[in-house]
Amino acid sequence: MNDNRKIIYGSIVALVILSFAGGWYYNYAQNKTVVPDDQSAASSTDSNNSTTTSATSSKPTAAKPRLASDVTGTSMSYDQALEVFANQRIFFNENCRMVPTPIWVKNGIILMFDNPYREPRTFKLDGTPYTLPGYGFKLLQLRSTKLPHVVKVICGANQGTGEITLQ
């Protein structure tokens, strides 16, 4: 009878360990695509900049609350922005698809929207258009009063390009 109890207790312990390991792995896999909230990175600049960015953006309609604020500074070069916003970078591939997608971020985060191609790209966040110059970028601070909020991203003629969930 003792041998049977040892087998039962051993099986229970193994199941508990596997449950914890599975839960840890699930959280690890979920957090792997989460962009950290590092807003202090937007204030990091260098006085030796040679490349500047365009800070033009379209205004949202009056009926909608502003989702994104353009915080692109003209004193940060493209290379500096890539370094500073490495973990907060979203780019649009050759087919104008958002990479990575989907992502989950904290409300109020500043994200780098990058266009690594020669042609300008126009994308929309919940219907509000923004234009990225060729080989350019924009720094947009995303915030919503109602959380969680799923931001629908559309690039060019592609519908359903990506999603950003604000938490």
What does this 3D model show about the protein?
The chain has 167 residues and is of the alpha+beta class. The chain has two domains: 1-32; 39-166, Cupredoxins -  blue copper proteins (Immunoglobulin-like, Sandwich). The protein has helices spanning 2-31, 78-84, and strands at 68-70, 89-92, 98-99, 103-105, 110-114, 121-125, 128-132, 137-142, 149-155, 158-166. The protein is elongated and about 75 Å long. The longest helix is centred in the N-terminal third of the chain and has 30 residues, at 2-31. Residues 40-65 have a biased composition (Low complexity). The chain crosses the membrane at residues 7-26. Keywords: Membrane, Transmembrane, Transmembrane helix.
The first-level CATH class of the largest domain is given as Mainly Beta
| Total count of strands | 10
Strand content: 25-35%
**Mean pLDDT over the residues:** 74
Which CATH-level-2 architecture of the largest domain? Sandwich
CATH superfamily of the largest domain, please?
Cupredoxins -  blue copper proteins
Please identify the structural class as seen in this structure.
alpha+beta
What's the total helix number?
A: 2
Region (Disordered): 38-68
Biased composition (Low complexity): 40-65
Keywords: Membrane, Transmembrane, Transmembrane helix
Transmembrane segments: 7-26
